[in-house]
Each structure stands twice: as structure tokens, then as C-alpha cells.
Amino acid sequence: MESEQLRPTNARVSIDQPSPAIFERWEPRRSRSSDHASVEGRYRRFRELCDLIVEEVRRADDYMDAEVLRDEGLEVVVEVLALLEQLYDCGWGEGENLKAVVVAVQSQVNNAIWKQPHLAFLQEFMPYLRVRYVVDETAVDECYATIERHGLDPFRGTISLDGALKKYRIEEVREA
């Protein structure tokens, strides 16, 4: 009892009672509302960025000449690329799935001359992504399916480009 501190009681009793050690170590629990606000904030940022990308992609229609985006439309390209970078860092989605989606989208539009298939891909996929609450492997799969639907190369920007590949033939050698 020597190590326990005495604390006065607020009751009418005049006896001082020892303070249990648990009260000295007690810390208030984190409220769930702060965790919820953090999740809500990340989702709100995700939706805001997707909304801005969808808006910019709609503006790109004004700058299309037949099949190619005119030079005046490069402001749209720059803005979409910057928004995609922010979307990559926004922290929404399951695991790294949002990052995988953004990398797949960027592989199609970075360092590319935007043609009608690029624009059609963005016009179809970005509204799809925008309304998703759960960004998981299904969203990644849908991104690649949309890329292929619009005739784009899902491996663009990787070492699998036709000019970089060498073909080899493996033959079985039979000894006589």
C-alpha cells in the first residue's frame, strides 16, 4: 500500500482511498468519428479528382479535329495528366488498386498524341471509376477491358512494344 497514492473522496465519508494504478495509465479511446472523417475525406478527395478529370475530358471534345486533338487542346491533356498524378496519391481504394488503375490510364495517355480512341477510353472509364465506392481488382480489370475495347494497347509504354521484342524459336534436338 505504500506505493499507492491516496486521493480524497468527494463523498461525505472522511476516509481517503487509494487510487488504483489503472486510472493513472488510462487514456481516452480515439473516437470513431475521427477515423470516419478521415475515410470520408479521402473518398471526397477521390470523387473531387474524378469529377475534375471527367469535366476536363468533356472539354477535350471541343478540340478534336477528325481523329486527333488539336494543339489548342493540349491544356486539357496537361490538366488531365496533373489530376491523374493527384489521383494516384489520394489514398483511396483497397490496397494499391487505385494506383494500379491510375498507372494503367497513364500508360495510355502519357506521351501520346491523343486520338479519338484515347478520348473515348477516358470518356467511358473515368465516369465508371468516379461512381465506384470500392476501388478493387474489379476496377483494375475493367480498366484493362476498356483499354482493349477501344483498340488501345494495354502494354503501351512497356518493353513489350513490337519494335523492342525479339522472337526466338525453341526446337528440340534429337540425338541419333
Structure description:
With 176 residues, the protein is mainly alpha-helical. It has a domain at 35-153. Helices cover 51% and strands 5% of the residues. The chain has helices spanning 21-25, 32-60, 74-88, 97-109, 116-130, 137-149, and strands at 6-7, 17-18, 64-65, 68-69. It has a two-stranded antiparallel ribbon. The protein has a two-stranded antiparallel sheet with strand order 3-4. A hairpin with a 2-residue loop joins strand 3 and strand 4 (68-69). The protein is flat and about 70 Å long. The termini are far apart.
Describe the largest sheet: 2 strands, antiparallel
Q: Average pLDDT value? A: 79
> In which order are the strands of the major sheet placed?
1-2
Could you give the count of β-strands? 4
Structural class: mainly alpha
Estimate what percentage of residues fall within beta strands: under 5%
**Any low-confidence stretches, pLDDT <50, length ≥5?**
none
Number of helices: 6
Percent range of helical residues:
40-55%
Overall form: flat
Rg = 29 Å
Order of helices and strands: EEHHEEHHHH
CA-CA gap between termini: 95 Å
